[in-house]
From TrEMBL:
It comes from Azospirillum griseum. The lineage of its organism: Bacteria, Pseudomonadati, Pseudomonadota, Alphaproteobacteria, Rhodospirillales. It is found in: Cytoplasm. This is NADPH-dependent 7-cyano-7-deazaguanine reductase. It comes from the Bacteria. It catalyses: 7-aminomethyl-7-carbaguanine + 2 NADP(+) = 7-cyano-7-carbaguanine + 2 NADPH + 3 H(+). Belongs to the GTP cyclohydrolase I family. QueF type 1 subfamily. The gene is queF. Substrate binds at residues 74-76, 93-94.
Amino acid sequence: MSDSIYSGLTMLGGATVQPQSPDAAVLERVPNPNPGDAYVVRFTAPEFTSLCPITGQPDFAHLVIDYVPGDWLVESKSLKLFLTSFRNHGAFHEACTVGIGKRLVAELAPQWLRIGGYWYPRGGIPIDVFYQTGDAPKGVWIPSQDVPGYRGRG
C-alpha cells in the first residue's frame, strides 16, 4: 500500500493530546487491506472508565468490540484515545456502550459490529450492556466474548 493513503492520519506515529470528551475525539480509519474477505477484528478494553452522570463517581467496565470490516478499519491509537475520552464524561452505562458502538458504525460502516460492556457493580448491581448491528455474516467465525459475569467475593 502507498504511504499516501495514510497521509490524512493525524495521530499515528506522533504526539497527541487526550480529547476532553467523546464528542471532541476523532476516530480515524484506514483502508481495509483485505476488503474481499470476511473476518473479525476484536478490540478489548479491560479498564474502560467513565463517570456516573449523577454522582460524578467513576464507573469501570471491560469492553469487547468485535466487527467485520467493510472498506475501513479503525486506526487503533485513535480508538484508544476515543475510549479514554470517556474518563471525564458523565453518562450511564447504556449510553456509553451503545454510543461507542453507534459511533464506530457511523465512522466505519462495518459489515457487522457488536460491543459487550461488562460493567462493574454500581449500587451492588453489575449492569452489562450489549449492542449489535444485526446478524453476523454467514461463514464468519465469531468467537465468544468469554467475559465472566461479576461474582464479587462469593
